[in-house]
From TrEMBL:
Main localisation: cytoplasm
Residue numbers annotated as active site: K152 (proton acceptor)
Signal peptide: none
S-adenosyl-L-methionine found in the keyword field: yes
Residues in TRAM domain copies: 199-257
Entry's Gene Ontology molecular function annotations: rRNA (uridine-2'-O-)-methyltransferase activity
Binding-site positions, S-adenosyl-L-methionine: G48, W50, D68, D88, D112
Gene name for this UniProt entry: rlmE
Subcellular location: Cytoplasm
Function: Specifically methylates the uridine in position 2552 of 23S rRNA at the 2'-O position of the ribose in the fully assembled 50S ribosomal subunit.
Taxonomic lineage of the native organism: Archaea, Methanobacteriati, Methanobacteriota, Stenosarchaea group, Halobacteria
Catalytic activity, as annotated: uridine(2552) in 23S rRNA + S-adenosyl-L-methionine = 2'-O-methyluridine(2552) in 23S rRNA + S-adenosyl-L-homocysteine + H(+)
Annotated Pfam families: FtsJ, TRAM
Name recorded for this polypeptide: Ribosomal RNA large subunit methyltransferase E
């Protein structure tokens, strides 16, 4: 396995601004995050290693928007045009600036944001989760159906809740440590693929009316036009259900007692 100096040296040789570029390459290879033509929003983007990798992956028909507290030098690697915004992701005006730059279509949101480290484990963890939540909020707002998300977060007591929130918003989610992360680091990356945009999420309880029957014999209910298959329910039933699984275009639910 490559050690930290290998990645550092490789970054120098291959013209990447930061060894962290290899973390995004590894995440992209494993999860197919960025496709040609994608619009990518990269949060915590300075000095620009991820921007370089994203610009290569998105290609000439893609776009990359990078955001950081720090100024970022122009990126001249990869074919996608890269635009940068200097701002604080905890402030609304930065989110407004991204929305304006993105011009309504975003396919991928990635965040490598990290707080200034104090060395106090719980505090650094809490601040990292706060930044990761800003990234998730941005992804929830900007990603279209099927969009992808990857965010750095330091391990600690609030990680499980954060992972559960990512899991609710995406059809697929995983937590991973790319090889290029330093061994001593407590960072992990939470990945979400196939952004859900329907009106229900796993765990939701609601009253529905069964208006049809699916091929497998499940009842069909429509929630704002979204199809829910309800196990063991017959046409005409009015049932209280809990949503058990959600795919991009339909979901599954089971009747429960109120
Ligand atoms: C590990 S570095 C990112 C490295 C980058 N992915 C690369 O490959 O060059 C983390 C970045 O997060 C930024 N950051 C931390 N808090 C932020 C915030 N509230 N808003 C925007 N950027 C933030 C820092 O300024 C820092 O540049």
């Amino acid at each position: 396995m490559a050690g930290k100096d290998d990645y550092y040296n490789r970054a120098k040789q291959q013209g990447y601004r930061a060894r962290s570029a290899y973390k995004l390459k590894q995440l992209d290879r494993e999860f197919d995050l960025i496709a040609h033509g994608d619009t990518v929003v990269d949060l915590g983007a300075a000095p620009g290693g991820w921007l370089q990798v994203a610009a290569e992956a998105a290609g000439a028909h893609g776009r990359v928007i990078g955001v950081d507290l720090q100024r970022i030098d122009d990126v001249e690697k990869g074919d996608a045009p890269v635009e940068t915004i200097r701002g604080d992701m905890t402030e609304d005006e930065t989110k407004d600036a991204i929305r304006e730059a993105a011009d309504d279509r975003v396919d991928v949101v990635i965040s490598d944001m990290a707080p200034n480290m104090t060395g106090e484990y719980n505090l650094d963890h809490a601040r990292s989760v706060h930044l990761a939540r800003q990234a998730l909020e941005t992804a929830e707002e900007l990603l279209g159906e099927g969009g992808s998300f990857a965010v750095k977060v330091f391990q600690g007591q609030d990680l499980a809740d954060f992972k559960a929130d990512v899991e609710r918003e995406f059809a697929f989610s995983r937590t991973t440590s790319p090889k290029a992360s330093r061994q001593a680091s407590s960072e992990v990356y939470v990945v979400g693929k196939n952004k859900l945009t329907g009106p229900v999420r796993v765990g939701d309880e609601l009253d529905v009316e069964i208006t049809g029957v699916g091929e497998e014999g499940d009842g069909i209910a429509k929630v704002d036009g979204f199809t829910l298959f309800v196990a063991g329910a017959a046409e005409g039933d009015e049932v209280h259900v809990e949503v058990t699984d959600v795919k991009p275009r339909f979901g599954f639910a089971e009747p429960i007692e109120e």
